[in-house]
Amino acid sequence: MVNGVNMGLNRRAFLKIVAAAGATGVAGGSGLLLREDTQRRRAAAEEYHLKPLPEITDTGLVRPPGALPGRKFRRNCSGCGACLNVCHTMGYDAIAMAGPRHGGDAATPYIKDMRDFPCTLCMECPDKCPTGALQPLDKPEVRMGMALIDLSLCFGWNGDVCLSCSKACPLGASVFDFNYGAWGNQPYINENCVGCGLCVRYCPLGGSAVKVVTPEIYTQLQEAYLQEVDNLLHISGEERYELVYGRNLPEIMARGRLVEREYR
């Protein structure tokens, strides 16, 4: 029976079966092949850092916390590397210096890889900036960027309940809203997000289902993204079923679930 609520196989149960099959295989030769294929795809997802929201090809350079906006930051930043050094000394290694491929932004700091090295919001780098390009702020006032959840890849939007991103967030409940329903807990990151990227790091999907973009790029994407969220929450059960089972779950299965990434 297809009615948007009960379609024979419960969505959450289905995802658990998928996860179990990926982890242990199914008895017999076909199970071994399934396990090997899942492991291969999972390894590929990690090796190539598969990205969510593939239509967003440019996230911009996400700056360290407290960065002055746009051109003001570039005018004030001397490229001295004090922020990079303190980040390295603290053991986080989140900051790198932009290079020639970044054009006019060369020799300025940015957050290099949020999948493995997000900003922890230790707030040491603004205190060490000698030019004022990074300003000391309270954590809730930081605006490094905006985290966007790929609704087609997120476990919580495709029949499961996953809280890793919200648990990892240093601001927690003030940033995350949930739309609980038959299709999962459906997390949404609101505009209190500071853009640190800890949610990217701890998403258990291979490659992550979260991407952080700069505030400027989010301004361009905001209307379309909010419309996508609204559309998904209001389409019929039959349409959602086709979307999840026909398109989303095959990609989720290919990327795999990385239990060690989950924030507990």
Key attributes of the depicted protein:
264 residues; Alpha-Beta Plaits; 2 domains; two-stranded antiparallel sheet; 8% strand; elongated; disordered N terminus
Explained architecture:
- With 264 residues, the protein is mainly alpha-helical.
- It has 2 domains: 11-57 and 144-261, no CATH class; 70-141, Alpha-Beta Plaits (2-Layer Sandwich), CATH 3.30.70.
- Helices cover 39% and strands 8% of the residues.
- It contains 9 helices and 6 strands; from the N terminus they run H-H-H-H-E-E-H-E-H-E-E-H-E-H-H.
- Strands 1-2 form a two-stranded antiparallel ribbon. A two-stranded antiparallel sheet has the order 3-6.
- Strand 4 and strand 5 (187-189) form a beta hairpin.
- Helix 1 packs across helix 2 (29-48).
- The protein is elongated.
- The two termini are 36 Å apart.
Query: Given the C-alpha coordinates, what overall shape results?
Result: elongated
Q: How many helices does DSSP assign?
A: 9
Helix content: 25-40%
Give the mean pLDDT: 86
Q: Pairing-aware structural class of the strands and helices?
A: mainly alpha
The ordered string of helix (H) and strand (E) elements is: HHHHEEHEHEEHEHH
Low-confidence stretches are 1-10, 20-28
Extended strand count: 6
Main sheet: strand order: 1-2
State Rg. 20 Å
- Summed up, the domain count is 2
Q: How can the largest sheet be summarized?
A: 2 strands, antiparallel
Distance between the termini: 36 Å
Strand content: 5-15%
